């Protein structure tokens, strides 16, 4: 059984729509700790991180905003996730916008490097987040973490990423919103992009099983970054970046169940939940449900709900 460590990351600075900073509280209210404990795992809540004292940083791109805050969050999250892994825990980072993955993945990579194990990354998201601070046209740094993880240039203000993750160890699922510059940069690196057409044609299980098999064969650790907008907005409205045509309830649970079956997940991000945009907590509850599946809950364990 896992020792799960909840780390709240109330981060709103990676984008401009307020509300993601309420995400950690919403996950707790929706019963995340109880859902994990119900599967027999240990749960420790390390509380919410606080932004450290900011240091002066600069970026040549004038549209980038909140750079000092994002760097600060990255540094504190990197340390905290590394600490959790070093203590034998499975860190679950409660976001917060997706810029938190700059720090969470860096912490996982630092730990994996010390262990002499390769880090694999499963990116469950409608967006590729493959811009750099220099190429971003929106200035929103939640659109940059995958580029940082993959070792793209342009992150001089940030701590050097420990052991950037090469393309064969990155798998993206649910992608359906990519701009041309990001697509060109990803194609240069041959990153596996399982967009919604791939899922429609092959199903979601086959490509995921192939990726998990590669991770297992390499003796790898697996960092999973789950964005609310991976899900279709009809079932998960509580996000500021909705894109139609996302994964269904059953597809998402199949991903979660396959992750549990693999036994490979070593760290997990839950990002972009905006409770202010949610409908009576339905998105928070669905995300908690998915974590329950990742931790071992089976579909036949689910109660019937009154209509």
Briefly, what is this?
The chain is of the alpha/beta class. The chain contains ten helices and eight strands.
Explain what the structure shows.
With 307 residues, this protein is α/β, with parallel strands linked by helices. It has one domain: Arginase, Chain A (3-Layer(aba) Sandwich), CATH 3.40.800. It is built from 10 helices and 8 strands. Helix 3 runs parallel beside helix 4. The longest helix is centred in the first third of the chain and has 20 residues, at 67-86.
Q: How many discrete structural domains?
A: 1
CATH homologous superfamily caption? Ureohydrolase domain
Question: How would you spell out the order of helices and strands?
Answer: EHHEHEHEHEHEHHEHEH
N- and C-termini, Cα separation:
35 Å
Structure annotation, total helices: 10
* Low-pLDDT stretches: none
What share of residues is helical? 25-40%
The major beta sheet can be summarized as: 8 strands, parallel
CATH topology description:
Arginase, Chain A
SS-based structural class? alpha/beta
Number of strands: 8
* Rg (C-alpha, Å): 18 Å
CATH class label: Alpha Beta
**How would the global form be characterised?**
globular
Q: How are the strands ordered across the major sheet?
A: 2-1-3-8-7-4-5-6
CATH architecture descriptor name: 3-Layer(aba) Sandwich
Mean pLDDT: 95
Proportion of beta-strand residues: 15-25%
Topology:
Elements (H helix, E strand, L loop, with lengths): L2 E7 L13 H7 L2 H6 L4 E7 L18 H20 L3 E6 L5 H15 L3 E6 L20 H6 L19 E6 L4 H10 L2 E4 H7 L2 H13 L3 E7 L21 H14 L2 E7 L10 H13 L13
Parallel strand pairs: 1-2, 1-3, 3-8, 4-5, 4-7, 5-6, 7-8
Helix pairs in contact: 3-4, 8-9, 9-10
